[in-house]
Design brief:
Layout (H helix, E strand, L loop, with lengths): L9 H11 L2 H8 L6 H12 L17 E3 L2 E3 L3 E3 L12 H11 L3 E4 L7 H7 L4 E6 L5 H14 L3 E5 L9 H6 L17 E2 L2 E2 L1 H8 L8 H9 L5 E6 L2 H9 L4 E4 L13 H12 L4 E5 L5 H9 L4 E4 L1 H33 L15 H4 L3
Parallel strand pairs: 3-12, 4-5, 5-6, 6-9, 9-10, 10-11, 11-12
Antiparallel strand pairs: 1-2, 7-8
Bound molecules: flavin mononucleotide (FMN) and ligand LXCWX6NK.
Length: about 375
């Protein structure tokens, strides 16, 4: 299932997507907020970290399985929510659903998807599906989405807390003047579509992407309307991680939205260890942002993530060959992680810990 000679690492899928997607779609996917400092830093910071391998530890077989919120997944590499996957390939989110199911991993469904959440869940029953929601200003919209996700078989509700307003993408403004490409289909919100195509103005006026007046009380309310576990996506500080614990959420994801919201925040890998040390014994901590290689995954697990999530590589995989392309992406990362575990002396995910990473004050000057 490995990709052909043109795509041997995840960066190759990005190059393919840049060449083959329409300009507007490419810019929408690849952009970060404002000057894109954080977007670049997410990847740069991974490259700065140095590993300390151990040898002679019998790594002839490796076990990449782990659990997230009690559910077994075959690899600690899961899929972050990304909007409008149909712009990349007609397989859209159904392709991603089938690929993630085949790898028995977790896919987070974006609420602003090209296919409805019911169609995405039906596409493959394997793996674990979590539903991503915003705190919408109209509580009926939020409640309705949570109930639909429960009925469709989702096993967790991910609340994206870093998007009380959509970050400004300069590059989108240069090519289109819009927030999202004009032909975006938004299947979960029929009311705001004409022939499936979203009306960005009405959608943003009435539904909005988040509520700037949202507070922790909204998280308590969301907890009260569902029995599903709650995962907060977009936590970047120890302070907020501790408040999340007080509010009894089940897990947090250290995320800066792939550098698309507040520009100037640190790379997620640079705040992961302190957040994980503060709350990792109480709730599960995941991370996303800039994960592109097996050694990135290894570093993130060593610094306290229970699992990593990937955003853009999945849409670039879709752009390459639909469902097969997403499988290629997952297979490459899985193979790279397995090799990195062998070469660093780790046989199981539990063997991966901080001892295989050089001290931060030594590597951060590199
Ligand atoms: C095109 C695009 C759309 C996204 N849509 C969503 C979304 O609907 N909900 C959300 O919480 N995050 C969204 N994100 C952020 C991702 O979930 C994730 O945090 C980010 O892409 C991770 O960084 P990476 O792309 O470097 O892997 C989106 C990111 C991109 C690039
Ligand atoms: C008008 C819909 C905007 C969706 C924003 C999706 C997202 O989180 C991102 O593009 O980033």
């Amino acid at each position: 299932m490995a990709a052909d000679a043109h795509c041997v690492c995840l960066d190759d899928f990005e190059k393919y997507a840049e060449k083959h997607l329409s300009l507007m779609t490419w810019i929408y996917y690849c952009s970060g907020a404002d000057g894109e400092t954080t977007l670049k830093e997410n990847r740069r910071s991974f490259r700065r970290i140095r590993l300390k391998p151990r040898v002679l530890r019998d790594v002839s077989t490796r076990d990449l399985k782990t659990t997230i919120l009690g559910r077994e997944i075959d690899i600690p590499i899961c899929i972050s929510p990304t909007a409008f996957q149909g712009l990349a390939h007609p397989d859209a989110e159904a392709g991603t659903s089938r690929a993630s199911g085949t790898f028995n991993t977790c896919m987070i469904l974006s609420s602003v998807s090209s296919l409805s959440l019911e169609d995405i869940c039906c596409a493959h029953s394997g793996g674990t599906k979590w539903m991503d929601i915003y705190v919408w200003p109209n509580p009926r919209v939020t409640k309705d989405m949570v109930q639909r996700a429960e009925q469709a078989g989702c096993k967790g509700i991910v609340v994206s807390v870093d998007i009380c307003q959509v970050g400004f993408k300069r590059r989108m403004a240069y090519v289109a003047g819009d927030i999202v490409p004009r032909n975006a289909i938004i299947a979960n919100f029929d009311k705001y579509c004409k022939n499936g195509i979203m009306n960005e103005t009405t959608f943003l006026d009435e539904v909005k992407c988040g509520d700037p007046s949202a507070t922790w009380a909204d998280i308590d309310w969301i907890k009260s309307i569902t029995k599903l576990p709650i995962i907060l996506k977009g936590i970047m500080t120890v302070e907020d991680a501790l408040i999340a614990v007080e509010h009894k959420v089940n897990a947090i994801m250290v995320s800066n939205h792939g550098g698309r919201q507040l520009d100037g925040v640190p790379a997620t890998i640079d705040v992961l260890a302190e957040i994980s040390k503060a709350v990792g014994d109480k709730i599960e901590v995941y991370m996303d942002g800039g994960v592109r290689t097996g050694t990135d995954v290894l570093k993130a697990l060593a610094l306290g993530a229970r699992a990593v999530f990937i955003g853009r590589p999945v849409i670039y995989g879709l752009a390459y060959k639909g469902e097969e392309g997403v499988k290629n992406v997952l297979q490459i990362l899985k193979d790279e992680l397995s090799l990195a575990m062998a070469l660093s002396g780790c046989r199981t995910i539990k063997d991966i810990n901080e001892s295989i990473v050089m001290e931060k004050n030594l590597y951060c000057r590199l």
